[in-house]
Amino acid sequence: MTTMIGTLRRQAQTAPIFSAWIIFLLSLLVVGLISAARVLWVGLDVTNLSNTVPWGLWITVDLSAIALGAGAFSLSTIVYIFRVKSFAPIARIAVFVGFVGYTSAMLALVMDIGRPDRFWHPMVFWNVHSVLWEITMCVVFYSMVLVFELAPAVLESRIVVQRFPRGPKLAHFLHRFTPVVSVVGLGLSLLHQSSLGATYGVLVARPLWFKPSLPVLFILSAVAAGATVTLGLTVFYENLVRERQINTRLRNLLAAFAGLMMLAYLYLKLWDFLATSYYSHLPARANDSTLLESTTPYGVTFWWIEIILGALVPAIILLTPRLRRQDIWLVLAALLAMAGIIVNRWNVTLSGLVVPMDWSPGAAELFAVQKYTPTAPEWGVALGVLGYALLMLTLGLRYLPLFPKDDAHH
Amino acid sequence: MGENNATNGGSEKTLTRREFVTIMVGAGATVAVAAVLADPLNSVAQSLLGTDTEVNAEEAPASTGPRWGMVIDLRKCIGCEYCVFACQATNDVTDEMRWNVHIMDETPTGNIFHLTRPCLHCNHAPCVSVCPASATYQREDGLVVMDYDKCIGCRYCQVACPYGARSFNWEERGDTPNPRVPEWGTPEVERRPRGVVEKCSFCIHRLDAGLARGQTPGVDPEATPACVNICPVTARYFGNLNDPESNVSKLLASTPTFRLREDLGTDPNVYYIPPEGLTI
Description:
The complex is a heterodimer.
Chain A: H1 2-14, H2 16-42, H3 57-68, H4 71-81, H5 88-112, H6 121-124, H7 131-155, H8 158-163, H9 167-175, H10 178-201, H11 213-241, H12 248-278, H13 283-295, H14 298-319, H15 321-324, H16 327-354, H17 376-399
Chain B: H1 5-8, H2 17-49, H3 53-59, E1 68-73, H4 82-91, E2 101-106, E3 112-117, H5 126-130, E4 136-138, E5 144-146, H6 156-160, E6 166-168, E7 197-199, H7 204-212, H8 226-230, E8 236-240, H9 247-254, E9 270-273
Parallel strand pairs in B: 1-9
Antiparallel strand pairs in B: 1-8, 2-3, 4-5, 6-7
């Protein structure tokens, strides 16, 4: 810790921009901590959540962070299970992004539940019938997988090796189990990344949600965006340190993988729309859609941000050799994919909640469309989680060997 | 696949006829087995997970034990909200978190009618299946109840309940006075802590205590939900749906009734007698 602070102090003199960045991130964390303290002290009353819209911004943060961390399992699978050697240099950064994503999600979740002191209850009081129980178990175990997969990078880092010279040896030993651990990680990820969509998809009373496509849409979008973000972050980092970390071939392969997954996501999303809203007419769903279109911006953001800017444009960038050759386009694709995921998770969550469920037997229109705008403490906690994620990414890229030393100039 | 020719052959050689046929037969058999398994697998998985108990409960003979239910006569309800207030006093519920609510609805021909809605205590309650900590569960007597000590406050049950019958404790209530006390009764249960979800319990404390005393819920007021006792027009009936002689069973046998959103398959234990002009 002291060396880290010492290094940071030296940084302040030699790299003022880096220091300014760290100060900015720390201020985000301070905002987050103040907001979190308020939430924990007063309760969820400080949010704009209600009995009719019980989920909002934090659930969006949680879902987005887990989705953006999906590069970890998909790219680990390619490297450790399918043993595609050329992808190996991206495995560690992917796992690290996953670790940051999952821990961020947990932070958001702990703030969101009414009794954070009971976060462990699902692990003890099982309800195998609940998708949320399955998600909780999977996320807990998968986080352990991520810690295991990340351990070698930590053990090989300079900070650890200085104090614990046998770190790399232990890392090498741990690394031998990676294929087995990856299989477990793949299973857990396939389950919970899909179940997060099923959380909504299984609710029969909400026609906008109740469909079997949601689990698949969730995992496809997560794999596509997760890989895109991992690639974009890598390219961004290459520009920071002015040195290539992955060779052109891997960069093209990654872009093609992410782009094809993005196309697969778009394809399913198109057919989801066509099958549920165009070629068929389920009165309950049609009514809710009409209500949504006429009273909220979700329809506009669905087409423009989720589909066009968040998926189609990134897919085009990733699959066009002339564009993906340029760093700026790849970083842009990553930012757009990120925005696409966040807006998608927000839209899925809020669209199903703001449209009222009509349980009255009569003809009167008794239930109004709900509004939800997050309060300052809600934004504060979200910013704090963002600050945590960015700080972790910064420190990780700075102090952990996340890219192989010798693989840069192939 | 039966023989190892495929792996020995190397990548340049194409499949022999024998290998090709073997693979095709293998694939066909796999599909056939999968198709056969697909349906039974469901019940096998259910029995493995122990989730078939509710199926058994349903198939069990009607005489095994009580199943508590309510009948609300919408022909009689005048919308006085006495049941709403009595519930609030008895169970110490705030105005914002009402377990039992009143709405003013209208028939297709424009006639106003009043409807009150407690928790419907569904036999296939979405809130029960979604709870990640089994903090809400259905007892064998049909009551869908909360274990406030288990609830983590994730609010998935609120999202899942089709009837909006669940309230969350957004803040610590402390000693804030209850506006319905003492006019409508005195609290008989503890206030719920901040951060947990709560709901109508059919006055479970009265039921259980009354049964222990040998009383009959729905007949003896001390063993009957507060909302039923207070109704000035006797629009609410409570009793054992499994007992053909109970008042609720007799009503159900003699009068057409409906349940809220039956299309959702939640199978509620609260029945309504429609008001004039409303056909369900």
